[in-house]
Amino acid sequence: PSGIDGDTGVVAGAAVVAEMTVTFHGDKIGLHVEPARAHAGEIVVQDIGIPRAVRSRAAGWLLGEHAAPAPPKGDSANKYTAGAVLVIAGSPGMTGAGALTARATLRCGGGLTVAAVPSQVQSLFAEQVVEVMATPVPDHDGVFGIASLDAVLAQARRVAAIAIGPGIGRDPRTSAFVRQVIDQTDLPCVVDADGLWHLGARPGWLKRRNAPIVITPHSGEAARLLDCDRTQVDAQRLASARSLAKLAGGVAILKGPGAIIADTTGVVCIDAIGTSALATAGSGDVLTGIVASMLAKGMDPLTAAATAVRVHSRAGVLAGHGDGTLAGDLVEHLPEAISE
Fold first, then answer.
1. Each residue of 246-259: pLDDT tens digit?
2. Predicted structure pTM score
3. Cα angle at 259 between 262 and 254, to 5 degrees?
4. Starting from the edge strand earliest in sequence, which strands make up the sheet with 161-164, in order?
5. What letters, b where the CB count within 10 A reaches 16 and e where it falls short, cover 195-225?
């Protein structure tokens, strides 16, 4: 549509809002990236006789109906080989976020999930997810701090991947703890929610980490990490996702309509379908659990993140509650989404 950038998805000013866009020979990445996506309507790729051998290098991939190759449990699998995850989560008043993450890891076929939880809230957490080993760790008035580090690192030696951030709060004493966990573990790690806040602005120090890392910010969190205004992130989502990946030295999932997954090479995957059912509290915590489960199964970070986004989206549709969808509904429909 006139007025949008087909390469970036940027809408710089007045632009046509189309019911249908016909594009020739090949698709254009910008048509699937907000805010341009809202201008494109139905997208049709039309053959006009150009030989198929004439192609440019793919800038990205769309996650469609069959884009979730989640590895199943093998016949000889045990709870460790099926994927063991450590979820580092919780603080006073915010145990539900970590519980959603932990449940999601298991509903995605994970074999074992250990939750490291501040001692003060461990009993509340344990009541919510009986299948998870909720381990109390030393805390500072119910929040993680440096006193929590040794106990958490000991639990990390039992698992294949880590999720850190859901419901941990923003107490300043937690910042050094989060950074030390990321620095001192050599496991694939997904950082979400308040964990992203504790990374600080422009956390280039993440790049020195040897093991894979996936970050999952929404626009507001992305703006803090990139030290810019949220409106800039929303206006330039494709560029922002790529900048986040380079900043972290890993994979970034920029959440929101048409979620974008980017790696350090600039390659992106975009959720082509999506659903407004995901716009509910706790939805991001579920996504974190899915990513962690895929990483624990041995998937490379870009594939794990892309698979997780697609499964998450599909679970929102399968839940069938539309605007009334709860995060817990997503968790219960993860097995069906994966089986498709």
1. 999 999 999 999 99
2. 0.95
3. 55
4. 60-63, 268-271, 260-262, 251-254, 213-215, 189-191, 161-164, 84-88, 112-118, 133-137
5. bbbbbeeebeebeebeebbbbbbbbebbbbb
